[in-house]
């Protein structure tokens, strides 16, 4: 196991290295001179040269990359071009809101996916199965920002059950915090619910056809016990993989949902930074998103092997 | 004389394909349903200039905010008095070409990488696959947003970004299939008869990759439409006054309290379009995957 973990970590190094090159190059693809953005009105050649020297833009590209990489390794993502705040601080301030939204969205997706997927598998071919499968295709086809807008229209504008958007910190008012997070979490978690439902269904169908389930039935175990105790536990193992990847991809979904619901998280910060041409912040967020994904991939592989003893780490 | 057997073989192959398609249709009505929906969407995109009752960008302030089912405006009008039905029809002319170009970029670039990587192996495989791993490390939408943010927000850059995001999926799929196919006897036999790698790839590998690739194309088209709508919703795709579904939702969301149809109509158009492509991909996978055949 330790050898496997070490080998996976070593294999991650070249990929992580390529990711940093990709993120670094993204900013250098940007048309225009960052010095001009920083300077605003005062664009004298001396001022431009001074900014180039200050940011190291007068150095060869590979030197700039190595300096930038050195800073990254020390946890320094640079400073925001617009607010001059350290990028790590800007992201750190917004991350808890994104993580809260992601966690509630994940809970919602599992609460929908596991029961529906199980029912669809147990009653395969029935109306309930067709309905659940149709809902699953629909769930991945509707854009999450559109789900958000429909929810706002019906539940906020028409029925006035939930606020239109915004955020109240949990330590300030737990009840209001919950009221504010429900709609964005449903919008963010619906596509995940659809995917998890399909995984649960197909995995459950496979497990229900296995010999040990037949044996359990033959020994007289009640059907409900066979489904929920014997089958579901094993059927959920592949679901863990996809849920792990969804955790790694929280920032991705949050970009749009947070914009619709004016949720002050990392996703909204990304969009604001793009429009303010604050490329150091965009760079930091893209790097964070990519590394979250890489680490989630690694953890999923390890957890998968731990949950399913048949998988050997050789 | 010399071309006759080849002609006969080609005709036989076409006849076989027709029979296969008919059998496919008979056994899988979902393929027909989804295929018809996709075909209808393409027809709408193609015929939008002829079937749209109004100019989609013609401003008429006197007609602003007309509700659906108004006389001469089936789905109502927007805040500038533009006919919503015409804008939705023209929106298909934006979304479907974006999907087409983005999928083509992903398919060609990813397919070539997958073919080279899978067929030649060795250093090619090692280097190309690390590159693909690095691309896969980026969540798809974040990568698309980052590319558009770097290149500048417009429709062409959105197409490029979505295409780049699709590359790893095709590279991985094609590589895996080529690795399986090149172990098969007919490939070994062709190679022993002196066929060149180009000939093996073009005449024997690519035709055998088609089924799974077609399924992936359909699913990727759904993703591309969704991604384009998302980028336009965020203001990073099509720009005003292009009639784009994502951008129409963005504008419509501002008027949600009084005129909800401004956001709901284009939202429904995106959902139906993506649903059709996903349904087609799903049903084709069920129909073409021999493991799922009863």
Description:
- The complex is a heterodimer of chains A (314) and B (294).
- Chain A is mainly alpha-helical.
- Chain A has two domains: 18-73, no CATH class; 95-307, Orthogonal Bundle (MetI-like fold).
- Chain A has helices spanning 2-29, 34-39, 45-55, 61-73, 87-122, 127-141, 144-158, 174-208, 211-218, 223-248, 250-260, 266-275, 279-307.
- In chain A, helix 5 packs parallel to helix 13 (279-307).
- Chain A is globular and about 85 Å long.
- With 294 residues, chain B is mostly helical.
- Chain B has a single domain, classed as MetI-like fold, CATH 1.10.3720.
- In chain B, 75% of the residues lie in helices and 0% in strands.
- Chain B has helices spanning 4-27, 29-51, 84-120, 122-136, 140-151, 155-181, 185-192, 197-233, 245-253, 261-288.
- The longest helix of chain B is centred in the middle third of the chain and has 37 residues, at 84-120.
- Mean pLDDT of chain B is 86; it is low at 1-18.
Give the helix/strand layout.
The complex is a heterodimer of chains A (314) and B (294).
Chain A: H1 2-29, H2 34-39, H3 45-55, H4 61-73, H5 87-122, H6 127-141, H7 144-158, H8 174-208, H9 211-218, H10 223-248, H11 250-260, H12 266-275, H13 279-307
Helix pairs in contact in A: 1-13, 5-6, 5-8, 5-10, 5-11, 5-13, 6-8, 7-8, 7-11, 8-10, 8-11, 10-13, 11-12, 12-13
Chain B: H1 4-27, H2 29-51, H3 84-120, H4 122-136, H5 140-151, H6 155-181, H7 185-192, H8 197-233, H9 245-253, H10 261-288
Report the helical percentage of chain A: over 70%
**CATH fold-type name of the largest domain in chain A:** MetI-like fold
> How many separate domains make up the residues of chain A?
2
CATH architecture verdict of the largest domain in chain A: Orthogonal Bundle
Spans of chain A of 5+ residues with little confidence (pLDDT < 50)?
none
From the 3D structure, determine the CATH topology of chain B: MetI-like fold
